[in-house]
Amino acid sequence: xGTELLxxxxxxxxxxxxxxxxxxxxxxxxHHVTVGDxxxxxxxxxxxxxxxxxxxxxSGGLGPTPDDITREVVADVWGCPLRADAKEMRVIEGxxxxxxxxMTENNRRQALLPQGAVSLPNPxxxxxxxxxxxxxxxxxxxxxxxxxxxxxVTASLGPLLKASDRLPASRLYSRDLLLAGIGESQVAERxxxxxxxxxxxxxxxxxxxxxxxxxxxxxxxxxAEALASFRPxxxxxxxxxxxxxxxxxxxxxxxxVGRLLKARGLTLGVAESCTGGGLAHWMTEIPGASDYFSGGxxxxxxxxxxxxxxxxxxxxxxxGAVSIPVAKAMALGAAKRLNAEVSAAITGVAGPSGGTPEKxxxxxxxxxxxxxxxxxxxxxxxxxxxxxxxxxIIHTLMRLRQHLGEEQAG
Amino acid sequence: xGTELLxxxxxxxxxxxxxxxxxxxxxxxxHHVTVGDxxxxxxxxxxxxxxxxxxxxxSGGLGPTPDDITREVVADVWGCPLRADAKEMRVIEGxxxxxxxxMTENNRRQALLPQGAVSLPNPxxxxxxxxxxxxxxxxxxxxxxxxxxxxxVTASLGPLLKASDRLPASRLYSRDLLLAGIGESQVAERxxxxxxxxxxxxxxxxxxxxxxxxxxxxxxxxxAEALASFRPxxxxxxxxxxxxxxxxxxxxxxxxVGRLLKARGLTLGVAESCTGGGLAHWMTEIPGASDYFSGGxxxxxxxxxxxxxxxxxxxxxxxGAVSIPVAKAMALGAAKRLNAEVSAAITGVAGPSGGTPEKxxxxxxxxxxxxxxxxxxxxxxxxxxxxxxxxxIIHTLMRLRQHLGEEQAG
Lengths: 410, 410
Prior knowledge:
Chain A is α+β, with helices and mostly antiparallel strands. Chain A folds into three domains: 2-163, MoaB/Mog-like domain (Molybdenum Cofactor Biosythetic Enzyme, Chain A); 171-248, Alpha-Beta Plaits, CATH 3.30.70; 253-406, Maf protein, CATH 3.90.950.20. Chain A is 43% helix and 22% strand. The first copy, chain A, has a five-stranded mixed sheet, sandwiched between helices. A four-stranded mixed sheet of chain A has the order 2-7-6-5. In chain A, strands 9-10-8-11 form a four-stranded antiparallel sheet. Chain A is elongated. At the A-B interface, helix 1, helix 2, strand 1, helix 12 and strand 13 of A face helix 1, helix 2, strand 1, helix 12 and strand 13 of B.
């Protein structure tokens, strides 16, 4: 794995996963180090890690090929010679017997563990991990593939660490506030004082995919203590940014809109031009969306706007396909054709070409129909084609959330 | 930046970007190291990096806050005291003058560079980077945010390195073969001999998002030499995996399907149930898709299948919404309603609930209509709701590609 990381072939998602795991358990992380499948460099990295850390987490190099040397180097650095683990040997032998494939010496090597180590079962691969408690530094060796490493950490390493003496009494708790429809720099301006002075809980913002995450984090002995620490800061954030907040922690924008539709017993139909089905795709990410999502019409051409949504040809001719009148006609057509009480329509210039001085790339027209009536607006977005499409979807969902949550049936 | 990485808040995309940059320029990367905003740990890491490397690349810690210490630590470790850079000072002063914001001492610090260093302009932020040629190890300091670092590396650092004496005469070239519709383990079985024995060009597989990338890489003095080295291996790969290959390098599956439609002068319309508009969204990722994509119907409910696609209620009643007869009716309805020569329809059980013993989660029915007639099939996929939806889209695109590329109008 190390070699692929050093070539830039793959992203080091294991470093992030293991860091979050440590933060969650109250362990401070001071170093990430990546080296290739090279005895000297790996040994050198582990000698230093053992010296400076209480716990060393290693991923990769447990496979069956001669390149995979983690097991041997750990045994050498920690001074605990390799021994065959009878249980793991049976697991590996069983695996090959069931497949009717001959087992090689290299496969046998996977059942070797440093003396005193306990094996970490790997239900998603052949290489078990191991965990070794040692006076100066505990060490865990984990497989490189994330789909093997992540379940092993959650199911086996976590409980072992909890049972050891290496976890602090307090750990890090966090609470995320999720925002959309506002830029990161605007958020930073509105809470500049907090970003500068707020110390515990700490506060940080992360932006990506048109959404912003404000994370509060604090070290506490239990959740109640953490929540008490978050509450006053959350109140300030809500008073300054309320209109842009769509949820907390793992909530999603389509999930929030779906809950509002369901609570009010309404169904949604959508008509999309430049977003090409993306809004419908997002809405149907949520299992059970059929309770409130009646369908979508992707009318990428003028002909399909006319045939499917009953937009009048004269409206398109007079105002152009990207216009408020066409967006309104699309929203009304979608509600009618999809037999929905609520509808949203998007038509815009996603680019990179097709813009004019009057209707530049990034101009997107929206219309929303529902108990509140028929509303519309146009927005000028910036960025690539993909970003303009994504921001148009987010804008639609934020507006639907407002209409559904704040305004009452008229 | 380092601190956020160590907490697992953000993924280290800079490590990947810089590694690819190095590989592309023939530079071997032996270590990635991440430390927080801490003088001792950063200094220690840089002392060791300077000793073992010809070139040290640093990202982060160039901002205006007291935490940002990269500039000072580099000056200290390389023994080159900081000096104000007149040009960068003017740039920063101009930035604050234009905004009418008072400039602080910390902002001024951003124009300090180690003696002998050249500044790397930052058009996307206030902190310039710098590059210092030094006998034992050249060093470049780059900003942490990827949207500042990436353009700086491409526009400034690359040309400076090319002009220096640090780049080898040969560099790494690669060629990616893109596959879909086959699992990674099946690929590994079909080319087990190559994966084991093939040395130069090297061969590696990467899987993700239902697609597989087989990468050939070799060190060569120019592209012609690299291509000559790839050709015999590519021929073997094509002979063993031809049916699953949809493109090379940066090609995309919707792009490949779009090219075939355009070349044959055909338009595509789609009808989607479980994928909820995702197929339409993928097809319209490509600028200019309106030349061949006529539209899509997201018929998530039975009512919309009947109203929009003219699926007979008796067909749904008799066979169920997830069935070959319904998929066929959807494809024919989409072609008719969207006035398209080619159509594809998807209806399936995306889960996580809604499965039955007869129609389990992951069962997806497809139909394809076009000059080849009307074809259909069902496939049992595994995985999460998101994965089942993604694999259904990929399956549809692969099948369209086959129909459009291999079969002639009947």
